[in-house]
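call fold(seq) -> tokens
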Amino acid sequence: MTDADTLPGEYAEMLRSIRDRVATARARAQLAANTELVHLYWSIGAALLQRSRTGRWGSGVLAQLADDLRAEFPSMRGFSATNLKYMRQFAAAWPDESSIGQQAVDQLPWGHITVLLSVADASERAWYVRSAVDGAWSRSVLRHNVRQGLATRQGAAQTNFHRLLDDDGADRAQDVTRDPYVLDFLAVDGDQNERALEGAMVERITDTLRELGSGFAFVGRQVHFDVDGNDFFVDLLFFHVEQLRYIVVELKWGDFKPEHVGQLSFYVALVDDRLRLATHADTVGLLLVRGKSDAVVHYSLASTNAPVGVAADELLPPELQRSLPTEEQLQRALLGTH
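ret:
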């Protein structure tokens, strides 16, 4: 490493300049990707809308289409049946695709657009679009203002909002960079390594089950749950036939972070509520964290009736130890070593 004293005097300025250029280019690319995604969703919605008017394209067909699309594009979470319905509503709300660009709808993240679908009046929708773009509203702010009927109170007339975005649109890109649909569409999101690991485990599912120990049955990958119109996906779901309990598995490529436990606990609660039967034991959550350098595997167990812990298996309750593989078995399942 070069000693700081030997660096040119203008080095820090050059570093900042390059950093700013990279940030600006990424922001522009993300905004452009968001625009492409919005128009893609509109075109899918328009096709579905046309089919629904001329044939039998009800919820059953959409569910099958969602399953097939997720099989074709496993890294994209935007192809749930719920989201396909949103696409169809989107095309119905804006029948003319050119109006999406004219009204700056394609400058909003998809999550914002789904909120706007609850607004029946076209002029009010247009007002919320302009306000959200010009005011850089977050999704929660937009939802609150729609529920409060802000457009009706202030009038749906043309406004002179001060544009808060800079010339490069970097501020507006903040919401876009957090939109999971854009990230999946770009296929450069932070969990692509987890997706690759998940795919590898599914491809060799027989060996994986053998490594996990006796009693494990594979239920599904990216198992979808709809909660109040929001899509959630469990990475891997197993069922332990001896313990009669579901095992929720979440895969993380990097080091353990506290928020991983919250996400896992949420998924455990979903499986408990939606899938678990009265005869089943409590659902268990298993977090597999693979360090990029040492491939260390840690446990993070969660259930609605048990404390959350991150520890080696000898520190876990005995009844949970019996239903889970050892840390060595998890390492072999993750790395494909024998």
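The longest strand covers residues 216-227.
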